[in-house]
Design a protein that fits this description.
alpha/beta; Rossmann fold; Helicase, Ruva Protein, domain 3; five-stranded parallel beta sheet; 20 helices; binds adenosine-5'-triphosphate; binds magnesium ion
């Protein structure tokens, strides 16, 4: 391996041993140190071809040292590892010129590849950019699933690439979009959001592109569209799956040509806008149904970010619970409440079909309704089972008196309520409400019936009044996990 030397600093002996063994085996010269001082000495003496450093070290923060390294040896690739898995660490590391940021625990194979790429002659390090360091990062996410999201975000912050954020309702898509703007190079320009599902179909084009006075009934004055309002900044196209076809065609043209003409106007307007789109719907499915343009999809989906559902990142739940209790406490001038460990554990294992938004609403309800400082498991159960899918679990015996129907009804009400909670302050869409709500309810309804029948698809199909094959198709289409039959 033509004698490349890798310098490693980490105060964790186990990590030093593992890395030094694995990398020596690959043929690299390896030097390890338990602190920043020794590493700094090597680097300032001009030694080493690549650095791997931890963030938390006894004598100096690895991120501060990174700045100093980049000042004297801007071309030296530095890989930053950290167990302090906040988006801020990822962003800071990238901003300060780290070649790569690796949240701990990481995969050795991944590290090997990163090293190989870092040492290849093609690699030119980015210039260091100093940024305001003290802004608070709003996104919580120590889970591995969110760490992956943060890593992609950190790389995208200072680019103009078009981003498509996908994720179930309430997973934090809008927050991700805002963070990409607020911590990127366009942060001093406007962030303008437009929700396709909230605007009457016939007004979408004039909202996006503006209109001339008198161009249609109701256009009493000339008005700038969101594209123009977002000049120099970011335009967030939320619920892009709900965009009508005509508007899609027009948007595609704008993205291709970089300019547009307002409704009723004749002069093309050029604006520099970064596009971030989001959707909770399956766009591939919409494409196959002829409801979304495939070419627009590829234009928008330059870099996809999938925000995972909360049930796939349960490690984040305790942090989120504390965060929402703190927020409530601050907003209402009271001490932040706490959960007893059993209650926390219970919430960490709950399904959260409405994701973070549902958790947030739930914590707010607890904080408002319960007076004790520490909220107990019983309180939590009480509150949760008052109107929850969990009820279904109590309907084990399927005898005549089974409250299943009643429970289903309650659950459907809850999902309806969730739907409206999840789209707060929105005006009702001018049409399509029937289809939209039914499509939102389809998945939870099938899940409920499967849960109630302990995964027995024949019984669930009967309960739903659906053909068995139709149910099977739906399960696949909606990606509903199949429970193993228990006899
Ligand atoms: N990682 C996170 N850390 C802290 N709060 C979060 C996080 N993700 C989401 N939230 C909070 O959860 C709520 C829902 O987030 P957001 O509106 O971004 O979700 P969404 O995916 O856009 O939902 P929808 O599909 O319903 O539009 C917001 O109040 C947001 O502040
Ligand atoms: Mg949203």
């Amino acid at each position: 391996m033509d004698d490349k030397t890798i310098l490693i600093a980490d105060d964790d002996k186990a990590i030093r041993t593992v890395l030094s063994r694995a990398l020596s085996k690959e043929g690299y010269n390896v030097r390890v140190s338990s602190n920043a001082t020794a590493l700094w000495e090597w680097v300032s003496n001009g030694e080493g071809d690549l650095v791997i450093t931890d963030v938390m070290m006894p004598d100096e923060n690895g991120l501060d040292m990174l700045l100093r390294i980049k000042n004297i040896r801007p071309d030296l690739p530095v890989i930053v590892m950290s167990a302090q898995n906040t988006l801020m660490t990822a962003v800071k590391a990238t901003e300060r010129g780290a070649y790569e940021y690796l949240p701990k625990p990481f995969d050795l194979d991944e590290l090997r590849q990163v090293i190989k790429k870092g040492l290849s002659p093609k690699n030119k390090n980015n210039l260091v950019q100093n940024k305001n360091e003290d802004e608070e990062m709003p996104l919580i996410g120590r889970s591995l699933a969110m760490q992956d999201v943060f890593r992609v975000m950190a790389r995208l912050m200072n680019t103009d690439l078009t981003v498509m954020i996908a994720g179930e309702t309430g997973t934090g898509k809008e927050l991700v979009a805002r963070a990409l703007h607020d911590f990127g190079k366009r942060k001093n320009a406007p962030f303008v959001a437009i929700n396709m599902a909230a605007i009457p179909k016939e007004l979408i084009e004039s909202e996006l592109f503006g209109h001339e006075k008198g161009s249609f009934t109701g256009a009493v004055t000339k008005k700038a569209g969101r594209f123009e309002q977002a000049r120099g900044g970011t335009l967030f196209l939320d619920e892009i799956g709900d965009m009508p076809m005509d508007a899609q065609t027009r948007l595609l043209r704008v993205l291709q040509e970089g300019e547009f003409i307002s409704v009723g106007g004749s002069v093309p307007i050029k604006v520099d806008v970064r596009i971030i789109a989001a959707t909770h719907r399956n766009l591939k499915q919409l494409i196959s149904q002829g409801l979304f343009r495939e070419d627009l999809y590829y234009r928008l989906n330059v870099v996809p970010i999938n925000v995972p559902p909360l049930r796939e990142r349960r490690d984040d739940i305790p942090d989120l619970v504390r965060h929402f209790f703190n927020n409530y406490g601050e907003d209402n001038n009271q001490v932040s409440k706490l959960l007893d460990p059993k209650a926390m554990n219970f919430l960490s294992n709950y399904k959260w079909p409405g994701n973070i938004r549902e958790l947030e609403n739930f914590i707010q309800r607890l904080a408002a309704l319960y007076t004790e400082e520490v909220i107990s498991f019983e309180d939590v159960c009480n509150e949760l089972t008052n109107n929850s899918v969990l009820n279904i679990k109590n309907t084990e015996d399927e005898n005549e008196n089974s409250p299943l129907n009643e429970t289903l009804q309650q659950s459907i009400h809850r999902h309806l309520k969730n739907y409206f909670d999840a789209h707060p302050g929105e005006e009702l869409p001018s049409n399509g409400l029937y289809g939209r709500i039914l499509s939102e309810l389809e998945k939870p309804l099938i899940e409920l019936c499967l849960e109630a029948t302990k995964g027995n698809q024949i019984k669930a199909a009967e309960l739903l009044g659906l053909n068995r094959n139709t149910l099977r198709k739906k399960i696949k289409e909606l990606e509903i996990p199949v429970i193993k039959k228990r006899f």
